[in-house]
Design brief:
Blueprint (H helix, E strand, L loop, with lengths): L1 E6 L12 H6 L8 E8 L21 E5 L4 H7 L4 H19 L4 E5 L8 H9 L3 E5 L7 H5 L7 H21 L2 E4 L3 H9 L8 E3 L6 H7 L14 E6 L7 H16 L8 E6 L14 H7 L5 E4 L5 H10 L2 E5 L11 H6 L4 E6 L3 H9 L3 E5 L5 H13 L12 H4 L4 H16 L7
């Protein structure tokens, strides 16, 4: 049995950002010869309440080392809200002790707290342990600048983060033994940016979906909407960012076209947008309602910007009559929520860029209606496609004939097997490669 130290500051998972890669790996890694210790931050230092029900999916035998962080009430005064800045010193100290006292074959970083990743450089230098990076989002991200969109946290804060990213990304990725990404676009972008990185250094491994999560969710109760009121309830669950606005506007326009054409009675369908803002509690702001008001469909749109626990979200998918997914106008944007959406076995509509992996997957799996668009398309043209393919064909009444055998590579079991192959290839380069 080999040993891996998994660094995931927001583990155990909370109702905040989606850190479910590690959670899905842990029940299955030992089958592939790997024993894991998780290094995280105490939950009282993290935004979002810990999901007690979600802890039931984690084996009790897994050792989780929790370290401290500068309390948020102090960091607010100093304007240092980032978890990586508040907890970096404590994670470094705890990791030093673990690597000094125990024998680890590998360190695995699975987090979007990017400023934690340079710890891999320190630990490789001081302890000779290789590290693997799980790149879930772009670290250097020119999207907001190139599209003239105000970034979360404001331009100054974002500029500082991106300056640090440009300095650190090259050093970290060049030193990493392997890089896992969730999108096939990321390796292409990174190899173009850093020509000395080779394709063999990358593996594209989506998060996957876990059927056992739905089995637990069956016993959950959700309060986002009520069933049995003779209305159709269509659900989108997840954050909404500015890049999604064109897809959402196109859908609302198509929805209004369907109502005007008599395909939908005025109050027959309610549209639910759940957990649309990254901020928590009272800081969460509505992202969708202003768009719905401009498009004339606010009467049937319900937005809950605060996030709800993951298993309750799955219960919403199970209770929905149809599911909606909206993609960004950024071609490399993918969505880890796709696989739970497919596993919910409901009518599914996705509106994503033509180069997004989501579009290709939905079509290949026959898991729903995949509307694609490019930078050349107008919102009116996208809306027309949605109207013709989703509303005119009444696909919202049809459960997709998903190709479940083809879906198998996208399960938590397959994801874990592929991640374990990456680990094996790092510590035993002559062994099997992913």
């Amino acid at each position: 049995m080999r040993n891996v130290l998994i660094v995931s500051p927001r583990f155990p998972p909370t109702s905040g950002p989606d850190y479910h890669r590690v959670r899905m790996l842990l029940p299955l890694l030992e089958r592939h010869g790997w024993s894991a210790v998780v290094l995280s931050v105490r939950d009282d230092s993290i935004d979002g309440a810990q999901e007690e029900d979600l802890l039931r999916t984690i084996p009790s035998s897994v050792e989780v080392i929790e370290c401290s962080a500068i309390p948020r009430r102090w960091s607010t005064v100093a304007r240092i809200g980032s978890l990586s800045l508040r907890a970096g010193f404590f994670l470094r100290s705890a990791g030093d002790r673990l690597l000094r006292d125990r024998a680890f074959d590998l360190v695995f970083f699975s987090t979007t707290e990017f400023l934690i990743l340079p710890l891999g450089l320190r630990w490789r230098r001081d302890f000779g342990v290789p590290f693997v990076v799980d790149l879930q989002d772009p670290w250097v991200n020119p999207y907001y600048r190139e599209n003239g969109i105000a970034p979360p946290g404001g331009h100054v804060k974002h500029a500082i983060h991106q300056a640090a990213a440009r300095y650190l990304e090259r050093r970290v990725l060049q030193a990493a033994a392997h890089i896992i990404t969730v999108s096939p676009q990321y390796p292409t972008t990174l190899m173009r940016r850093y020509p000395d990185l080779r394709d063999a250094r990358f593996s594209v491994i989506p998060f996957g979906g876990a059927q056992r999560d739905f089995e637990i969710a069956q016993g959950m109760v959700q309060t986002a909407f009520a069933r049995g009121d003779n209305q159709g309830h269509w659900v989108y669950a997840g954050a909404v960012v500015p890049g999604m606005f064109p897809a959402i506007i196109a859908f609302f326009d198509a929805f209004q076209m369907a109502r005007d054409a008599g395909m939908l009675e005025q109050d027959s369908v309610q549209l639910h947008f759940i957990g649309t803002d990254y901020a928590s509690g009272a800081l969460a702001r509505r992202r969708v309602m202003p768009i719905a008001e401009k498009c004339g469909v606010a009467d049937c749109v319900h937005e809950q910007p605060q996030r709800i626990p993951y298993l309750q979200t799955l219960r919403c998918l199970l209770d929905a009559d149809a599911l909606l997914m909206f993609g960004s106008d950024e071609p490399g944007y993918t969505a880890s929520k796709l696989f739970p959406y497919v596993l919910a076995r409901k009518p599914l509509l996705t509106i994503f860029h033509e180069d997004s992996s989501v579009t290709a997957m939905v079509r290949e799996l026959r898991a729903g209606v995949a509307i694609s668009f490019s930078g050349r398309d107008t919102k009116k043209a996208i809306a027309r496609r949605v109207f013709e393919q989703w509303f005119m064909r009444r696909e919202f009444e049809k459960v997709p004939a998903t190709m479940w055998e083809a879906f198998r590579p996208n399960t938590a079991e397959s994801m874990t097997e592929n991640v374990a192959k990456v680990f094996d290839g790092v510590v035993d380069p002559v062994g099997p490669q992913p």
